[in-house]
Amino acid sequence: MTRLYRRQSGMSGRRRPGPAMMGFRRRAEERFFKALMIVSTGIVMGSLLLIVGTIIVKGLPALNLDMITKTPQGGFYLGKEGGILNAILGSLYLAGGATLLALVLSLPLALFLDLEARTRTGAAARLRFALDVLWGIPSIVYGAFGFVLMALVGLRTSLLAGIIVVALLELPIMTRAMDEVLRLVPDSLKDASASLGATRLETSLRVVLRQCLPGLLTAVLIAFGRGVGDAASVLFTAGFTDNLPTSLFQPAATLPLAIFFQLGTPFPEVRARAYASAAVLTLVILIVSLAARWLSRKLGKHTLS
Amino acid sequence: MAKEAARLGRDRRARRSMRILSFLPGLLVVLVLLGLFLKARGLLAVKPLASLLFGSEWKPLKGSFGFYPFILGTFWVTLAAMILAVPVALMTSIYLSEYAPRGIRSAAKSFVDLLSGIPSVVFGVWGVLMVVPLVAKLAGLFGTYSSGYSVLSGAIVLAIMVFPTIILVCLEVFASISRDLRDASLALGATKWETVKHVILRKGAPGVFAAVVLGFSRAFGETMAVLMVVGNVAQVPKSLFDSAYPLPALIANNYGEMMSVPLYDSALMLAALVLLVLVLVFNLAARLILVRIERRVE
User: Fold this and answer.
1) How far is B297 from chain A (nearest CA, A)?
2) Reported ipTM
3) CATH node for A66-302
4) Which of A259, A286, B98, B112 is 20 to 30 A from residue B203's alpha carbon, by CA?
5) Measured between CB atoms, which of A43, A130, A263 is closest to B125?
6) Which residues between 171 and 210 in chain A have a beta carbon less than 8 angstroms from any beta carbon of chain B?
7) Residue pLDDT, tens place only, A34-76
8) What residues contact B171, with CB distance under 8 A and at least 6 apart?
9) Which member of B90, B121, B272 has the closest CB to residue A260?
10) Tens digits of per-residue pLDDT, B151-200?
């Protein structure tokens, strides 16, 4: 506090300009930086609009019913008939399975964080730290790790391998998002439950979980969105195929890779389909994100606090 | 009585299994490191690490794997992206945390959340559609030729991708600075910007640093979007308009043929390991700073 004061007085004492002139300079500086900030915020917001706008405008004209209801036919990647149903379904199966698997691990972890937070051991802090570090691992590294795992157990590129790796990728995202939600539950509610004779487990399962249900669903949807959109981790593990996924042990196509492969061809028709596929992926992600936001707003309405 | 004992027993069992499960994330980090190392060992056994990291020749068929151009490619693309992203993201975070009215702040936060959810392939497609032609034109203005698939294109796309990381962490850091400090500064007659400059940025400096490091490590490992716009030529880039070949792109591009060339898979796993170790170091440093800030708040 004293340092702050000295700093301020030192500033005005340096050159001793007249009060009116100093006021002008300081006001000009204030205005200049405020304008700079507004421009910066505009750039950030504008880039989202620009990206989504470009993809939709470029993609929608190439989008038709065949694209989303048919699998690739012969010569699809040369510009012939077909669609990307294989990739759409593959992505949904893959992200769905991965999200379920991640949920099975995330929910107990998040509850553990919630329980331990009150007992002041370092366990919760350690787990949060590990999750944050895990979150920082790039998805291509998960993919490479998946490849090593597959070689170890003798699994080939398959839906199952993809599900496992994407579940690992989603785990920290989902757990941390759930953790944030569980933190909002007031302690008084847990105390009330405990005073009625409930054990900690019963309080967690019947009071805390029920209170947080919409928020937890939001966490699940956020993780699902990440799973659908990730490409680098499934490159090694899920493979790619033109067929619809029929078994966990078959390779499965995914939407991001379908976009990537179509964009890699030199044919304008196929590239146009890549834009259309990107529009489909963007719409799926936007719908999932908006649903997540809508649910978390609903959560706000019912939270006791 | 028996019923009570059963309930307490269930509680104890649940706690014990949760505790065991809580070691999983930490264990997973170690497992990933270990798994990649096991595969990379094959190459490390025949070549010293230094010659791999600083060698420039990449000829898998002849058994020479020099990562130097790829490591430098990653480094330059990421650095350029951070130079573009940090000022904009920092100014945006200051605006949202100190100036913006509540309505704009929450709307902007939704935007940033949405931006962080956009898949990297979509960023890549957008980069190919807009950024690459733009950069090619820009190179023309500077009197050089560029296909547009260049360090600069990768940097622009990456910069937008790391906005959310930097902004969200900065917002949390600024929110952790107490209201009283701001009020004291304002009461002494400082303008709002002077308060930001002398109080917020000074007090928040470690946190902002952590945010930048997290952004850097996010950009460092980003694969698909960069891969699609950066050109993928194995060379040390000499200008912003040159193509580069970052490490993640190398791994992603060659997964198909790595099984048919001896030691190739080992080399790619080593590339992933190098990437992971660098990212882990950045992450650990940033997280340690942020944990200390969080503890101060509590």
Assistant:
1) 15
2) 0.91
3) 1.10.3720.10
4) B112
5) A263
6) 171-172, 175, 199-202
7) 999 999 999 999 999 999 999 999 998 888 887 787 888 777 7
8) B93, B96, B97, B109
9) B121
10) 999 999 999 999 999 999 999 999 999 899 999 999 998 889 999 999 99
